Amino acid sequence: MSQAAVGETGVAPPTDTTPAPYRWRWLALAVILAAEAMDLLDALVTNLAGPAIRADLGGSATLIQWLGAGYTLAMAVGLVTGGRLGDLYGRRRMFLVGVLGFTAASALCALSVAPGMLVASRVAQGLFGAVLIPQGLGIIKEVFPPREMAAAFGAFGPVMGISAVGGPILAGWLVDADIAGTGWRAIFLINLPIGLLATLGALRFLPESRSTHASRLDLPGVGLVAVGAVLLVYPLVQGREQGWPGWMFAMLAAAAVVFAIFARYEVRRQRAGRDPLVVPTLFRRRAFTGGLVAGLAFFTALTGFSLVFSLYLQLGLGYSPLHAGLAGVPQALGMVIAFVIAGAGLARRLGRTLIHAGLLVVLAGVGGMLLTLRLAGPDVTPWRLVPALLVVGFGMGLVMAPFFDIVLSGVEPAETGSASGTLTAVQQLGGALGVALLGTVFFARLPDDGAGSAVRATLWVEAALLAVTVAAAFLLPRQAREPEPGQH
C-alpha cells in the first residue's frame, strides 16, 4: 500500500522506510465483514418473508420467485465487472458507492407499495452488492501482511456461519414480531443502521487503493451477459403462469444464441488487444468448464431447495416465518460443521474426492427427506426432518469447502482473476436459476397435488441436478494447487 493511500484516511504514514502493515487493518476488516453480513442476510431473507410480502402487496406466486431471482441475477451480472471498478476508480470509493447504494435500495424495498417496485429495488440491491463485495476482498489483500492473510480471510467463515444459522431466524422473528407495524418491511429496515455504521467505518478506517495494472471495462460484454441471463431466467419464472407460449421457448433459444455471440465477441476483443470480460482461453481448460457446469448445477440445486423448503413449511404445513426459520437451522448447522472439519486440512488432502463424497452425502440426505415426507405425509414435524436436513447441509458444506480452490487449480496463474470472478458470477446465476426452476416446479404441482407432492417433485429435480454435478466434477483436478512459499 502506498503512503498516499494511507494518508487519504487521515492516518499518519510510517516514519521509517520499512513497509508496515496498515495500523487500522483489523477495524477495516470489521467494516468489510459488516457489509458482507448485510449481503448474506439479504440473499436469504425473502425466502422466508415471501408469503407475507405477497399477502400484503398482492401479485402472483412468481413475485416470491422474482424477489430472490432478481437479486441474484443482478448480482451475477454485476460481479463480472464489479472488481474492475475498484481497480480503476479506487476500492474505498467504490466500497462507499456500493454500501450507500445497497442501503438506499434497502430503504426502497421497505417503502415499496407494489410488487414491481419491490422487485426493482431488489435488483438495485443486487447491483450495488456486486459493486460492494469485491472491494472488501481487494482491500484485505492490500492492508494485511502475508503472515496475517489466512487469519483475515478465515474471519469470513464465522460470519457466513452466523448468517446461515441466524439469518433465517432473525428474518422470521422480524416478520412475526411486526415491530411498530412494519411486518416484513423490518427485514430491509435493519440494513439502514448496519449500512450507516459501515459507511462511517469505511470513511474512517478503509484506505484508498487501486490496481496499478487495472483492466479496462468491457461494457458490451457486460451487456451481452445481462441480456443472455434475462432471456434464460425470465421464461423459467413466468412460463408456467402464462401457459408456456411459444415465445417463451424462443427466449430460451435466444439465450443460447446471445451467449454464443458473447463468446465470439470476447475472442475478437482479446485478439484486438483489449481486455476481455472473461479470458477466452479459460474455456479450453477442462477443469474450468467442468467447474462451470458443476457449479451451475450445484448452486441451482442448493438455492432452489432453500426457497422450496421454506415455501413448503409455510404454505403446506402452515408454519409461521419464525417457525420456518427455526426448522431450517439443522441444514445450516450441518454446513457449518462440514466447513469446520474440511477447514482443518481435509479439503487439501482429499481434493476432488471430498467433493464427490459430499455430493453422495447430499444425495443420501435428499433420499432421506423423500422417505420421511412419504412416510409422515402431512403429519411431518420439524424433528422428523432434522436427520435428513443435517445430512444435506453437511454434504453441501463438504462440497463447497474445496470447490473453488480445486477449480482454480486447473487454470494458469495469470487466468486466476478472471476465472475466480466468473465462477462467483456463475454461483449467483445458479441461485437465480434455482429459484426460477425449482420454484416453478413447486408452484406447478401445488394447486392440484398439494404441497407434499410439490416438494417431493422438486427434490427429484434436485437429485437430478446433483447427479449432473457428480458427473461434471470428474473433470476437475484431483488436488488443489499447493500455495507458493509465503502465500496463503
Structure description:
The protein folds into 3 domains: 21-206, MFS general substrate transporter like domains (Growth Hormone, Chain: A), CATH 1.20.1250; 219-276; 280-482, MFS general substrate transporter like domains (Growth Hormone, Chain: A). 78% of the residues lie in helices and 0% in strands. The chain is built from 17 helices and no strands. α12 (286-316) crosses α17 and α15 (352-376) runs antiparallel to α16 (382-408).
Characteristics:
mainly alpha, Growth Hormone, Chain: A
SSE inventory with pairings:
Elements: H1 3-7, H2 25-57, H3 62-89, H4 91-111, H5 115-143, H6 146-154, H7 156-177, H8 186-189, H9 191-205, H10 219-238, H11 246-271, H12 286-316, H13 321-327, H14 329-350, H15 352-376, H16 382-408, H17 416-473
Short description:
This protein has helices at residues 3-7, 25-57, 62-89, 91-111, 115-143, 146-154, 156-177, 186-189, 191-205, 219-238, 246-271, 286-316, 321-327, 329-350, 352-376, 382-408, 416-473.
According to CATH, the homologous superfamily of the largest domain is: MFS general substrate transporter like domains
The number of helical elements comes to 17
Mean pLDDT across every amino acid position? 86
Sequence of secondary-structure elements:
HHHHHHHHHHHHHHHHH
Fraction of helical residues:
over 70%
Corresponding CATH architecture of the largest domain: Up-down Bundle
- Class of the largest domain in CATH? Mainly Alpha
Radius of gyration: 22 Å
